[in-house]
């Protein structure tokens, strides 16, 4: 065991945090993106800003207003596969405590974090850097800890025991996000004209993976990224960001920076909702830019229907004019795909599209 950790430390593993702390004036070559994939920061200055939707979720609980909020959600999902929510019911103190615990975790000495390092995507708790340090051809300026989070009691003992507050604080945030995700899945089902509890059983049994991401200040933010363009595989992702950095691709295939909205959480549709809605909604393609001046933290709560459950287009949305456009797939199929393919080259969901249009 010690041998493995030592060889990882010696050979291949170097976190973005360690690079920043060592004061490198430039990013190492492995982080340099081909020119066409660079973020072109600042290129949009002066361009007309796209306004991204911000939805007041408290209005969902007001019977007279619910249907207009559902309509807003429908518009946002159709246009972007993305929206921000305010008044979502998660107390600011829960959010702040989770961010504090994450800050403390990434500030731990390298040796402590290396206890959890793994390149195996099937591991329920995994510390890492980039996407997968052992296979990435280009590296991304990100460190992360990912852990299964639902049901909490099943997984929490395996979570980091340092800092000592981590399990409690991140656990509270994970539980609160799980409750919020159920409300969102109901609203999204309703917005498709399905029963509110269409996915009820699946969301009860579904999984929640919390990806806690750290993007340290980067000496050359113009030629690297924190995460490459991708869509999330699950049903939906609830994202908490400590500052601006996320960009989403709009329907004209232009990158739009997601503004930091105090107290808001970001909702992104994943591939499972795209398949379930038979493409009426699309999963949102997004990427992360990094900053020269500050470190950014994020919590991506990745919600997914059960591991083995095959997801297919909802029969209610299929008729003579709307043939099923996707093959069915499960979370397990996705994990197998990312273990053996380069998902920066081809998105998993593109392998599911049928040629019947
Ligand atoms: C992710 C992700 C975005 C961010 O973890 O899948 O897209 O801002 N994160 O960290
Ligand atoms: Ni993502």
Automatic annotation (TrEMBL):
Main localization of the protein described in the UniProt heading: cytoplasm
UniProt KW Cytoplasm keyword: yes
Entries under InterPro entries matching the protein: DIOX_N, IPNS-like_FE2OG_OXY, IPNS-like_sf, Oxoglu/Fe-dep_dioxygenase_dom, Plant_2OG-oxidoreductases
Pfam families named in the record: 2OG-FeII_Oxy, DIOX_N
GO cellular component: cytoplasm; nucleus
Family note: Belongs to the iron/ascorbate-dependent oxidoreductase family.
Protein name according to UniProt: Fe2OG dioxygenase domain-containing protein
Species annotation: Eruca vesicaria subsp. sativa (Garden rocket)
Taxonomic lineage: Eukaryota, Viridiplantae, Streptophyta, Embryophyta, Tracheophyta
């Amino acid at each position: 065991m010690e041998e493995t950790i030592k060889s990882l430390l010696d050979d291949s593993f170097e976190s973005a945090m360690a690079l920043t702390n060592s004061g490198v004036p430039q990013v190492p070559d492995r982080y340099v993106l081909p020119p066409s994939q660079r973020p072109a920061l600042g290129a949009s200055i002066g361009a007309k800003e796209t306004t991204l939707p911000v939805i007041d979720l408290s209005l969902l609980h007001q019977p007279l207003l619910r249907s207009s909020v559902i309509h807003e959600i429908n518009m946002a999902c159709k246009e972007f596969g993305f929206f921000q929510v305010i008044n979502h019911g998660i107390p600011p103190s829960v959010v702040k405590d989770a961010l504090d615990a994450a800050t403390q975790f990434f500030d731990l000495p390298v040796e402590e974090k290396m206890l959890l390092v793994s390149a195996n995507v099937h591991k329920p708790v995994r510390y890492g850097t980039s996407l997968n340090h052992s296979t990435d051809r280009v590296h991304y300026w990100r460190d992360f800890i990912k852990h299964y989070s639902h049901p909490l009691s099943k997984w929490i003992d395996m979570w980091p025991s340092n800092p000592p507050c981590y399990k409690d604080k991140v656990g509270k945030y994970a539980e609160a996000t799980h409750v919020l995700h159920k409300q969102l899945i109901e609203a999204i089902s309703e917005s498709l004209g399905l029963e509110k509890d269409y996915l009820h059983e699946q969301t009860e049994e579904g999984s929640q993976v919390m990806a806690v991401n750290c993007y340290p200040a980067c000496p050359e933010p113009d030629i690297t990224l924190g995460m490459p363009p991708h869509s999330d595989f699950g049903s939906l992702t609830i994202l908490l960001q400590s500052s601006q950095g996320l960009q989403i691709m709009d329907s004209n295939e232009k990158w739009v920076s997601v503004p930091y909205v105090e107290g808001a959480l970001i909702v992104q549709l994943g591939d499972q909702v795209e398949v379930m809605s038979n493409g009426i909604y699309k999963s949102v393609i997004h990427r992360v830019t990094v900053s020269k001046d500050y470190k950014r933290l994020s919590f991506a709560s990745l919600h997914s229907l059960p591991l083995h459950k095959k997801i297919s287009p909802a029969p209610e949305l299929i008729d003579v004019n709307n043939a099923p456009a996707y093959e069915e797939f499960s979370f397990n199929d996705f994990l197998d795909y990312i273990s053996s393919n380069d998902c920066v080259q081809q998105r998993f969901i593109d392998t599911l599209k049928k040629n019947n249009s």
